[in-house]
């Protein structure tokens, strides 16, 4: 009997809180089962820094700075299937709350107007990634193939989604995943 080659899976977090990654880990022992069929590439789980060509890329978080744009485009260029994971990737989520204000207002509030700041000034080290005017959902920057809703998507959602891809099926997002309460 011939074994199918393992699917290569990469993940990353842009402007997110890593809660989606933590929820992935909540699959617990089912991850061991999945590892029969998938292998990790670049991901915070592996600490691999170089992205190889992959079958699946899971993107957590919205796009808030130039580095996020670069990383997202790199994943799009190297991943056959790119997935927006969680509310921040799908619609900007919590980081996009800053979109109600100008970038200047946000920076001044955080670094200048905050009481008891020592040497209040807006950080301007050239090594810092350039902030975008707004936080953008990932599909406004690159083409996305699937959206996994939730904040975060549940471990069951990750498991079902990956199992269906492993089986070569078209993943279905059910009513359970689309609940927002
Ligand atoms: Fe965190 Fe929720 Fe955003 Fe995921 S969707 S990165 S859990 S805030």
UniProtKB/TrEMBL annotation:
SUPFAM superfamilies: HydA/Nqo6-like. It comes from Nitrosomonas communis. InterPro entries: Hydrogenase_assoc-protein, NADH_UbQ_OxRdtase-like_20kDa, NiFe_Hase_small_N_sf. Residues 17-164 form the NADH:ubiquinone oxidoreductase-like 20kDa subunit domain. Its cofactor is [3Fe-4S] cluster. Gene3D superfamilies: NADH:ubiquinone oxidoreductase-like, 20kDa subunit (3.40.50.700). It comes from the Bacteria. Keywords: 3Fe-4S, Iron, Iron-sulfur, Metal-binding, Oxidoreductase. This is NAD-reducing hydrogenase small subunit.
């Amino acid at each position: 009997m011939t074994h199918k080659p393992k699917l290569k899976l990469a993940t990353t977090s842009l402007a997110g809180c890593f809660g989606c990654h933590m929820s992935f880990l909540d699959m617990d022992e089912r991850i061991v089962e999945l590892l029969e069929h998938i292998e990790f590439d670049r991901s915070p789980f592996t600490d691999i820094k170089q992205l190889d060509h992959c079958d699946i890329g899971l993107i957590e978080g919205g796009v808030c700075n130039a580095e996020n744009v670069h990383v997202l485009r790199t994943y799009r260029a190297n991943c056959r299937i790119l997935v927006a994971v969680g509310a921040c990737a799908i619609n900007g989520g919590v980081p996009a709350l800053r979109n109600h204000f100008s970038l200047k207002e946000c920076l001044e509030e955080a670094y200048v107007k905050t009481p008891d700041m020592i040497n209040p000034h807006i950080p301007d080290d050239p090594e810092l990634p350039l902030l975008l005017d707004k936080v953008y959902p990932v599909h406004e920057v690159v083409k996305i193939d699937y959206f996994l809703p939730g904040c975060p998507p549940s471990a069951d959602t990750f498991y079902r989604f990956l199992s269906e891809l492993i089986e070569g099926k078209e993943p279905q997002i059910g009513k359970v995943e689309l609940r927002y309460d």
